[in-house]
Design goal:
The complex is a heterodimer of chains A (363) and B (339).
Chain A: E1 5-9, E2 15-17, E3 25-29, H1 30-55, H2 70-79, E4 85-88, H3 93-98, H4 103-110, E5 134-137, H5 144-157, E6 164-169, H6 176-187, E7 192-198, E8 201-202, E9 205-206, H7 207-210, E10 225-229, H8 233-250, E11 253-258, H9 277-287, H10 289-299, H11 305-328, E12 349-351, E13 359-361
Parallel strand pairs in A: 4-5, 4-6, 6-7, 7-11, 10-11
Antiparallel strand pairs in A: 1-3, 2-10, 8-9, 12-13
Helix pairs in contact in A: 1-2, 1-10, 1-11, 2-8, 4-11, 5-6
Chain B: E1 2-4, H1 5-19, E2 23-27, H2 43-47, E3 52-54, H3 59-72, E4 75-79, H4 90-98, H5 100-103, E5 113-117, H6 133-137, E6 143-145, H7 150-162, E7 167-171, E8 179-181, E9 199-202, E10 207-211, H8 214-228, E11 233-237, E12 240-242, H9 246-256, E13 259-262, H10 271-283, E14 292-294, H11 305-311, H12 315-325
Parallel strand pairs in B: 2-3, 2-4, 4-5, 5-7, 6-7, 10-11, 10-13, 13-14
Antiparallel strand pairs in B: 1-8, 6-12, 9-11
The chains are: A alpha/beta (363), B alpha/beta (339).
């Protein structure tokens, strides 16, 4: 595969708020387009498999799927390094994969097994990969934004030329603490990029029912913003590269990614009471992020239709193998109940449900 | 030599900031104003605005930023002007700070200190007079410390800043100006007190009195009065609310066979309730009398001076309860509710 430059126009122009938007012309390569295709195919397959595992009762509790939004994770990773940080809410599986996380530890975590990325103690909403700058995986809507701005604070404090991407949905975009933290990020010129993944529904509430102004890229007022087609991985890449340069020089910026989730909010939501099936199938037909890349690959004769189908088949196999292996992973040892409560437990006694029966000293 | 609690806290902050460049302090008025209660006085001049950070009045925002910075490996000290305002940020203290190390199976540790004055001040009404020891003490993943004396303040704050876990550090506004004798050892910059260990402030053999923060002083005064009446009270300064030094408390009760718990907070589900449960579970057969609880009244703090006095424990309350535990009290007639 070639790394020669291919020049592509983004689907639509960027719209700027208090800033001149970057050019629509994006540079890519055969190599990059094929990587995008493979990685997104893997993400898509992973989420569809998670849906089945949930329905088979192998995944418990909450499970929020990312299919439809893959271009955001993929395009962002193409523009940044693992020294840059990412923090997100509960829809975190694919961002973990994007940071280099594996399918095996993902599925093991989803099924609450010992070999999960959080040793089975976090679950679907709490994936982390600190060594490559992924700080979770947070369950309280909006709380991850101040936390992300805190990461950016630490990057600046440590005099490093890295940035943090704090991801949130259109639902979280109305949380007060987002504006509190953004104010400080702007006051202190922190290298923070707020990424609003606007999938147009906060759970079942359409954006216009929750936000007086659903133009989220403008909601930072004094903070510049950019509206991006979040279904176009190359547009996302261009926007993130632009945002990183901006944030290092000038402080925070908001990127509103216009995206879409095919699944319901979580597994208890069929996703069809507050939107029409036509709307969903319309997005699949006209804006699907994987199909966009497939068309580009075919148009530039980088691979044949059959080769791409084979890649998808291969990803299906890789995912199935990871699931089979994850099912073999044992449940966490009961002793893990009391580990990691503290870094330093001082050997203090801790109790189980019946303290006369279960008590231990904290490591 | 004597030192005020304020100077003890200030010198502990100064020494730890000097020792570790990752330590910084943020909060409302910590810098140019020199601290609402002057605990951070002089630090801005010495360490500059990059490490002494004045924030806007946005607790949820700056607490979240502090916790995020701790995820990255810095050691933030977040000052709440009073702990009452920490309610705006309690989600970050509990969900973002206390649980992350566990949820991530040890990947994301959170070395942060949340500190500020806690409990009732004087004449500031219900929203500014509340003890959070039981609230934060209920949460696994947090460590909760409450100093009484200047040595406590220095040794525990230094321990909190050096600790790799999130620590809630509950000071008391009314103690800031009080002076206590300090040992030469406690003035050394290496001085540090162990987290999770109570201190026997006064040895005794007839009744154990547990207290923390300002109430330790009240308990000591009560012990003096009791001594004059021939009752030898042992006063335990808890120092650490979580971990709670159950072994020290139970050892003392096994010696004295009687227990009075003292706290300023609300009675229901309070620190005293937890201590009482621990003693009933571990040392039931040693008890010669029912456990006595002295606590704040079960009401929001009133403003009027006479009502406020009734809403917080007084020395005579502790004396009376200790005598009751020793079967030395005159039969008291409960005050009738007149509502």
């Amino acid at each position: 595969l070639s790394s020669d430059t291919i020049t592509v126009e983004t689907s639509i122009p960027f719209t700027g708020h208090n800033i001149d938007p970057p050019s629509r012309t994006v540079e890519t390569s055969a190599n990059e387009l094929m990587t995008f295709f493979k990685d997104m195919a893997e993400m898509r397959r992973m989420e569809i498999a998670a849906d089945s595992l949930y329905k088979a009762k192998l995944i418990r509790g909450f499970c929020h799927l990312y299919d439809g939004q893959e271009a955001v994770a993929i395009g962002m990773e193409a523009a940044i390094t693992k020294k840059d940080c990412i923090i997100t809410a509960y829809r975190d599986h694919c961002l973990f994969l994007g940071r280099g996380g594996g399918l095996y530890e993902s599925f093991a975590e989803l099924m609450g097994r010992k070999n999960g990325c959080s040793k089975g103690k976090g679950g679907s909403m709490h994936f982390y990969k600190k060594e490559s700058g992924f700080y979770g995986g947070h369950g309280i809507v909006g709380a991850q934004v101040p936390l992300g701005i805190g990461l950016a604070f630490a990057q600046k404090y440590s005099k490093e030329e890295h940035v943090t991407f704090a991801m949130y949905g259109d639902g979280a975009a109305n949380q007060g603490q987002l504006f509190e933290a953004l104010n400080m990020a702007a006051l202190w010129d922190l290298p923070a990029i707020l990424v609003c993944e606007n999938n147009h529904y906060g759970m079942g509430t359409a954006e216009w029912r929750a936000a007086k102004s659903p133009a989220y890229y403008k909601r930072g007022d004094y903070v510049p913003g950019l509206k991006v087609d979040g279904m176009d991985a190359l547009a996302v890449k261009q926007a993130c590269k632009f945002a990183k340069e901006h944030a290092l020089k000038n402080g925070p910026i908001i990127l509103e990614m216009d995206t879409y989730r095919y699944h319901g909010h979580s597994m208890s939501d069929p996703g069809s009471t507050y939107r029409t099936r036509d709307e969903i199938s319309g997005v699949r037909q006209e804006r699907d992020p994987i199909e966009r890349i497939r068309k580009l690959i075919l148009a530039h004769d980088i691979a044949t239709e059959k080769e791409l189908k084979d890649i998808e088949k291969e990803k299906r196999k890789v995912v199935d193998e990871a699931i089979a292996k994850a099912k073999e992973s044992p449940m966490p040892d009961p002793s893990e109940l009391f580990t990691n409560v503290y870094v330093k437990g001082f050997g203090v006694e801790a109790f189980g449900a019946d303290r006369k029966e279960v008590r231990t000293t904290l490591p | 030599k004597e030192m005020t609690v304020r100077d003890a806290l200030n010198s502990a902050l100064d020494e730890e900031m000097s020792a570790d460049p990752k330590v910084f302090i943020m909060g409302e008025e910590v810098g140019e104003y020199q601290g609402a209660y002057k605990i951070s006085k002089g630090l801005l001049d010495k360490y500059g605005p990059e490490r002494v950070i004045d924030t806007p009045i946005t607790e949820a925002g700056f607490t979240g930023i502090g916790v995020g910075a701790a995820y990255y490996g810095l050691k933030p000290i977040v000052e709440f002007m009073t702990f009452n305002f920490s309610m705006q940020a309690i989600d970050h203290i509990i969900n973002s700070a206390a649980k992350s190390n566990y949820m991530s199976a040890g990947q994301i540790s959170v070395p942060i200190v949340f500190r500020g004055p806690n409990g009732a001040a004087a004449g500031v009404g219900a929203q500014h007079s509340q003890c959070y020891a039981a609230w934060y003490g209920a949460c696994p993943g947090l460590k909760v410390l409450a100093p009484y004396s200047s040595e406590d303040a220095r040794g525990l704050l230094k321990a909190a800043i050096r600790d790799p876990d999130p620590v809630v550090f509950l000071e008391n506004e009314l103690l800031y100006g009080e002076s206590f004798p300090v040992s030469a050892e406690s003035l050394d910059s290496s001085f540090c007190l162990p987290i999770g260990k109570a201190k026997i402030e006064r040895e005794g053999k007839d009744v154990t009195i547990t207290a923390f923060s300002k109430m330790v002083g009240y308990a000591l005064k009560a012990a003096e009065i009791l001594a004059k009446e021939g009752i030898s009270a042992e006063v335990i300064n808890l120092r650490s609310i979580r971990p709670l030094d159950r072994p020290a408390i139970n050892a003392s009760v096994r010696k004295t066979n009687r227990l009075v718990t003292v706290e300023e907070g609300f009675p229901q589900h309070g620190v005293g309730a937890e201590i009482s449960a621990s003693v009933v579970e571990e040392s039931f057969e040693y008890l010669d009398a029912p456990v006595e609880r002295i606590s704040g009244a079960d009401v929001p703090m009133p403003y009027a001076a006479n009502l406020e006095r009734m809403a917080v424990p007084q020395v005579e309350d502790i004396v009376r309860a200790a005598k009751r535990a020793c079967y030395r009290a005159a039969k008291s007639v409960p005050m009738a509710a007149t509502a």
